[in-house]
């Protein structure tokens, strides 16, 4: 199940990358690059940080083609995107949760400490979006918006906790998905945000 | 031959990095850092993605000194740069093609899939420029301009295709260089661009 | 001694990251991420560049907790920060020197060339700050300001030079700290800067 969800996830992320590239008037090549980086950048950063070579997508050409296709199809259907906003937000949330769980699993298999497992999940979940925003010249939205990165944190902690309690992997994944999606939907619906830190001292360290 | 072209390539890239740093009023140290990252950043990202350790430049101090020299010399001759624009564009194009071919070779030797070989070539060709632009706070030009990254793609695909047809390495490199330089010169001369994707929906995913 | 100084160093860097995040109105999660990246990003980039896996902080959860704590505590005490400016600048300078020496040591133990050892020290010293600035959408200050990155260079070269002259490690560290802190304090006090390279040609390479 996680695999088919994963395909939905990377396609949704690739689309969000393509739209961001379009906002910066990038050419077709740029759209493809940003789509790829948004969809597979989080997993790439995770693999590099954990020393997990070869990097996952280098062994799965289908992932690469899927992100490029997702990016280029987005150009064709961009005019309809605003009618698909609800659907898109759901797919994006599914992607966030799927990426987080996969990231936890990779670190677990490599025998890393619990805190590193959680960070691996979060990195996989949010770093593609961070790379997208940096490449498009804007401050990473996932670090400012209504709880997004935080959903990744909750999912990772819950996932690891349930596994360590001896709960089966299927049930654990289902629970993580339910809680993650619910939390994200609530956050979007009522615009729930973490407290924001405002600091205006002109210059410092 | 590829080695001597490579030296031209990293010097040209280092110079382009130094000029970008100068536009941001960086100090001597900043100029050296940006020159280094522009010239050797693409190969570094490639080595890390492919798990090709130790990273190439750590084994070749001469590369490092060459980029630093290129960067600092640029400061001295900056006032004449506009008279050298044509020359510079040719050197830059040579660099793009040389980097691309070298990137393909590294991935080929490590036994990666064809699509990864092509991506390795492109990464080596364009990522130095992307890092330069990110460090200097501008949206990567290679993803927006008249076909630049696309030249790297064409060169990589052609190079891999000819090699797999059994064409000798010398002829293959010559063909890749000819086509790559021609394509880039045509693109500059007639300002050929890929179609641009414009998207203005305010906020999304 | 270097270990306890290291703890001061990562805390000071985490605080500088948190303040930068606050200037961009990031939420609590964003503050924690930027604090972490600022404090441990330099060492992470170094470990990846040198192929030094597993990455240091993945083996030391205490480092992670310390940066997160440092980041979140900063929010609580932000209103008093301007009274602490002098102290903060000293801590930051201590961090710069400590990071540089540690970075040199890592490369030395892996048997890298002297130039790579120096670059490893500088990378560890300044790259956290570069990542912080990129994530917060500003051109890296360490490449523009009164001599900061340069302090790292001087410390790294001096440290390597003394070690190779057969001077004991304790004395060498003391010398590197004294010179580094003095240089940084002089640079701050009298606003000493490296020459700046200004270049205004609109577009180029």
Automatic annotation (TrEMBL), chains A, B, C:
Keyword list, A-Z: Cell membrane, Membrane, Transmembrane, Transmembrane helix
Cell location: Cell membrane
Top-level taxon in the UniProt lineage: Bacteria
Domain (Glycine transporter) ranges: 7-78, 90-162
Membrane topology: Multi-pass membrane protein
Keyword field contains Phosphoprotein: no
Entry keyword Lyase: no
Transmembrane segments: 6-22, 29-50, 62-80, 87-108, 114-135, 147-164, 170-188
Family as reported in the entry's similarity comment: Belongs to the UPF0126 family.
Protein's name according to its UniProt entry: Glycine transporter domain-containing protein
